[in-house]
Amino acid sequence: MQFALEKEQREIKIKDLHEEIKILMFSTKEQEYSEQILFRNVSENYEKVVKKQDMIRFKNLENDHEVLKKTNEDIQKDNSLLQSTIKYNSSLIVELKDSLSKESEHLNKIHIIKENSSIYNENQQENSDLSERQNKAIKK
């Protein structure tokens, strides 16, 4: 009798253990399913974040490109202005050289005239002195 009672208690315990195993297996499957869903959600969110970051990077690149285009246009305008200024300054330099050359020529002529005038005055003085001596010599 005791043996039958123990056997019955063991069978009840075995049934209880089977039930617990079923519950645990169901719970484990449910947990695996939850983990799969969680993993999928995390993956989807990660993809969304990556796409968002890519969009932001692309937008930043577009903005940078626009800024660089504008900067390049500004540089081209500045370069064009500098080219014009260089041409204008070059023509001014040519004019100044020409004017300086003419002025130098004019100053050389004035210098020659002054020298000639000085020589003429010296000659006049010598003529005057010679005339005086000639007159003195004639009078003697």
Automatic annotation (TrEMBL):
Polar residues biased stretches: 116-128
Compositional bias of kind Basic and acidic residues: 130-140
Region (Disordered): 116-140
Name of the protein this chain belongs to: Uncharacterized protein
Biological source species: Brachionus plicatilis (Marine rotifer)
Lineage: Eukaryota, Metazoa, Spiralia, Gnathifera, Rotifera
